From TrEMBL:
Name this polypeptide is given: PABS domain-containing protein
Species in which this protein is naturally found: Popillia japonica
Segments passing through the bilayer: none
Domain PABS per the UniProt entry, residue ranges: 1-110
Family: Belongs to the spermidine/spermine synthase family.
SUPFAM superfamilies for the chain: S-adenosyl-L-methionine-dependent methyltransferases
Pfam families for the chain: Spermine_synth
PROSITE patterns: PABS_2
Length: 110
């Protein structure tokens, strides 16, 4: 797991213990590792190392709503998706979610 915000993980570890258990305390185990780092940087490293993953979970809830998908936020969103698909195994799955007004259909050419 890649997470940029250590404060969020510490808060989850403290206040959501019934969900997180102690994984956020240890940050690694036999079948997981939690890395505190910018995911864009990590995914670029994974691409260089030719690492592939079964799943990529994108926490992309700030999808902009516009008839013209342009601008800095759209560029970020597009880059995030491109990197995500490059590190997925051929049979891998990309998963994300949306909420509220960001729950719109998004068609991107990658």
């Amino acid at each position: 797991m890649l997470e940029i915000d250590d404060v969020v993980m510490k808060a989850c570890s403290k206040h959501m213990r019934s969900i997180c258990g102690d994984v956020l305390d240890k940050r690694s185990g036999d079948n997981y590792q939690i890395i505190v780092e910018d995911c864009m940087k990590s995914m670029q490293t994974f691409i260089k190392e030719d690492r592939k993953f079964d799943y990529v979970f994108g926490d992309l809830t700030d999808i902009p709503i516009t008839a013209t998908p342009t601008g800095e936020l759209w560029d970020f969103f597009h880059n995030m998706l491109q990197l995500s698909f490059k590190i997925l195994k051929p049979s891998g799955k990309f998963m994300t979610h949306g909420n509220g007004s960001s729950s719109v259909e998004v068609n991107l050419i990658l």
